[in-house]
Amino acid sequence: MSVSTGATLQPDELLDAARAGDDDAFRQLVEAHLPDLHAHCYRMLGSVHDAEEAMQDTLLRAWRGLEGFEGRSAPSSWLYTIATNCCLDVIARRTKRMLPIDYAPPAGPGSEPGEPVAAPVWLEPYPDERLGLDDGYAAPEARYERRESVELAFVAALQHLLPRQRAVLILREVLGFSAREVADALDTSVASVNSALQRARKAIDERLPEQSQQATRRALGDERVRHLVQRFTDAFESGDVQDILELLTDDVKFAMPPYADWYQGREAISDSWLMPGGPPPRLRYRPSSANGQLALGTYALDRASGRYTAIALDVLTLRGDRIAEIFAFRTPEEFPRFGLPLELA
Predict the structure, then answer these.
(1) How many whole angstroms separate alpha carbon 223 and alpha carbon 241?
(2) How far apart are CA 90 and CA 53, in angstroms?
(3) Segment 144-193, tens digit of pLDDT
(4) pLDDT tens by residue, 102-127
(5) Which domains does the chain have, with CATH numbers?
(6) Could you give the CA distance from residue 122 to residue 109 in angstroms, rounded to a whole number?
(7) In the Cβ-directed half-sphere of 143, how many Cα atoms lie within 13 Å?
(8) What pTM did the predictor assign?
(9) Distance between CA 155 and CA 2 in Å, rounded?
């Protein structure tokens, strides 16, 4: 790449300058699209780390392919086409990502956790706010909101689709591409796109809850959501198992990746290793957000140092004013992505 000119250019001029080797012009051409492109790669792959790899490959292919981009379509469409095909390449060589509820049947009450699964099979939480993902719809033709389409249930459901079905559904229903645009992006026919979309819609609708987390939180309102989060953190910090159980739906699910064991129902959870143990104050929480959902950074007391160290990011799924799912991702090294410190005094 050449040395940047630093000039402010119009879109056509940016494209011409980028083709001439101006790296600053190329940066300006793509940077406004980076948050949405990253979210697109995450939806396709279910992993922040895999999404970042696909993004790097996307930008490299875009730079190398500038001469072939004639500007007849919008730069965003061109970039999504490249990103989609990069993701399909990653899918072809990686294990499918999933949540523990898709990996094994629920564990019984009182069972002890097995060894954590070391292979990269788990769906990863997504720092949508930190990465700048916008609210609302990406296009008037889209069926799902941007944040709705990174919710855990949605991304987990996507991973059950065949790769090209997944790509078709995201491009059509999340990004609002026309069938012709998707056919061009995937080098296939409009009839094939429509057929894949029909099958993908049926499969994903069977796996999605009746109401998204975005709709649930709007229905509750900010004050009731804050109250629910406060009750949750107070109950865990004080070790009040009964109060914890009162916050949960009857069929609640509780899992802690990378452990494969998960529990369903209040009775099983009340007698599981996921409940707080040891005398309080053992746990502390800090609010965050992940996948367009409520999230909490969980910290456990190290009595030797007197400090609380990061142990898990709890992502909560609400159903009405109760908690229907808790996924406690035991990946404390990822806390900075969510604006959370690694230690508390």
Answers:
(1) 24
(2) 9
(3) 999 999 999 999 999 999 999 999 999 999 999 999 999 999 999 999 99
(4) 999 999 887 888 889 988 999 999 99
(5) 8-94 (1.10.1740.10), 213-344 (3.10.450.50)
(6) 23
(7) 13
(8) 0.93
(9) 39
